[in-house]
């Protein structure tokens, strides 16, 4: 009888610690890196107004335990993002929002180079089992319709090639809307960032759920 009591106690302790381990695993905070340029770095904004901070707060309100890492560098092109990728991944993120290319378009850089750079970045992320959400950009019209068409086609092509989540246009609802941008007409203000999040958050939650599913 005494042995049975000890056995029941032992099993109870094991179940307690096993359940505690399961709860801890479920509550483990995921790391989400936003690899981008000034649009994601928060140019002209306070740190708490920038996309990474606003996204982290929004996800927390939705019940997600996620640390959002700000990997935005003002002025960065797709080539710049590619060159600093290893450094950006030092914090070992579980997922990445790839939001590069706006400066390539503003400068009229070769769209084939944009494709090669983004392709290389996505390949590295996939090899390292890091989930990816590709945020599309659009070229300004001043370089002509041919350049615009070639540039804009890069993002859906890569999303399909790598079979990754794709948010078609990062600045949806914000581009060319004066009240949602800073005085330069290019960078979103804090209200503009909120609009970006409203459009993007469903894609981000799908990204997070895909990570959880594969953990």
Structure report:
The protein has helices at 2-27, 38-41, 51-61, 78-83, 85-88, 102-107, 111-127, 145-162, 190-214; strands at residues 30-36, 66-72, 95-99, 131-135, 165-167. With 215 residues, it is α/β, with parallel strands linked by helices. The protein has a single domain (28-214), classed as 3-Layer(aba) Sandwich (Rossmann fold), CATH 3.40.50.1110. It has a 5-stranded parallel sheet, sandwiched between helices. α3 packs across α9 (190-214) and α7 (111-127) runs parallel beside α8. The longest helix has 26 residues, at 2-27.
- Proportion of beta-strand residues: 5-15%
Task: Tell me the span between the first and last alpha carbons.
Answer: 42 Å
Task: Round the Cα radius of gyration to an integer and report it.
Answer: 21 Å
Helix-and-strand structural type = alpha/beta
Estimate percent helicity.
40-55%
CATH superfamily: SGNH hydrolase
Tell me about the largest β-sheet: 5 strands, parallel
State the name of the first-level CATH class.
Alpha Beta
- Tally the helices: 9
Total domain modules: 1
Secondary-structure element order, N to C:
HEHHEHHEHHEHEH
CATH level-3 fold name: Rossmann fold
The poorly predicted ranges are 5-26
How much is the average pLDDT? 90
């Amino acid at each position: 009888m005494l042995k049975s009591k000890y056995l029941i106690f032992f099993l109870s302790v094991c179940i307690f610690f096993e359940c505690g381990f399961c709860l801890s695993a479920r509550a483990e905070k995921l790391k989400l890196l936003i690899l981008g340029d000034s649009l994601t770095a928060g140019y002209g904004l306070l740190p708490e107004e920038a996309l990474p901070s606003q996204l982290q707060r929004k996800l927390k309100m939705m019940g997600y335990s996620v640390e959002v890492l700000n990997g935005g560098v003002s002025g960065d092109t797709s080539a710049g993002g590619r060159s600093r990728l290893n450094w950006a991944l030092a914090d070992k993120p579980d997922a990445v929002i790839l939001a590069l290319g706006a400066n390539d378009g503003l400068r009229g850089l070769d769209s084939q180079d944009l494709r090669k750079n983004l392709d290389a970045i996505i390949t590295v992320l996939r090899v390292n089992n890091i989930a990816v959400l590709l945020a599309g950009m659009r070229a300004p019209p001043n370089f002509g319709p041919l350049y615009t068409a070639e540039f804009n086609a890069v993002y859906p092509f890569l999303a399909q090639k790598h079979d990754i989540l794709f948010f078609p246009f990062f600045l949806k609802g914000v581009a060319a809307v004066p009240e949602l941008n800073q005085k330069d007409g290019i960078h979103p203000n804090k209200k503009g960032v909120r609009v970006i999040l409203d459009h993007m958050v469903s894609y981000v939650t799908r990204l997070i759920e895909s990570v959880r599913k594969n953990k």
